[in-house]
Write a structure and sequence with these properties.
The chain is mostly helical. The protein has four helices and no strands. It is rod-shaped and about 205 Å long. Keywords: Coiled coil, Plasmid.
């Protein structure tokens, strides 16, 4: 069995050896830190740059989306404008046709007015009075004709009217006999003699 001094010596030697190894390990650790420090800085810079790029990318995507929305609105406005242009063109064509029709109707009306302009003098007071008087005279004539149709001789008595009617009947028969005699005189004489015999 080792003595106490030997044990202390062995322990001290182990401690010194361990201390040397720990010091070397600490130096190696410090060297490793010095070597890793640039890499850590580079990683942090990379992370910062990556984060900045992500933010820029997000802003860029938002800008692209905004531009896309604006482009879609512009395209929609353009389509709406084209539709309005087509609608306005249709309205203009319709108004042009209506203007042409109204112009033709106006010209036709003007021609009719010019044709009737000569009759405008008839609307004055003098021609109107003459026309009214003529109409009144025509009414009187019509009433007279109606009265004659009912009774042609209203001033004669009934006996006198019968005499006139009888005379008119005899006059008609005389006229008929005269016509017959004219026809008979045109016949040949042998035929008349044979009829008399």
């Amino acid at each position: 069995m080792k003595s106490t001094s030997e044990r202390y010596n062995s322990l001290a030697s182990s401690y010194i050896k361990l201390s040397d190894e720990f010091h070397q390990l600490d130096v190696a650790h410090m060297d490793l830190k010095q070597k890793l420090l640039p890499a850590i800085k580079a990683i942090k810079n990379y992370q910062s740059l990556t984060h900045q790029l992500q933010q820029d990318n997000t802003k860029l995507e938002q800008t692209i989306q905004t531009l896309t929305d604006q482009q879609q609105r512009l395209e929609e406005d353009q389509r709406t404008l084209k539709a309005k242009e087509v609608e306005q063109s249709i309205i203009i064509n319709a108004l042009t046709d209506e203007k042409t029709n109204l112009q033709a109707a106006l010209e036709e009306f003007q021609a009719k007015y010019d044709a009737l302009a000569d009759f405008e003098s008839l609307l004055q007071s003098g021609p109107q009075a003459v026309l009214a008087e003529a109409e009144q005279q025509m009414l009187l004539v019509e009433e007279t004709l109606q009265e004659i149709a009912l009774n042609s001789d209203p001033d004669l008595s009934e006996n006198e009217q019968q005499l006139i009617e009888a005379y008119q009947d005899e006059d008609e028969s005389l006229f008929i006999s005269t016509e017959i005699s004219k026809d008979s005189s045109s016949l040949k004489i042998p035929n008349i003699l044979s009829f008399v015999a």
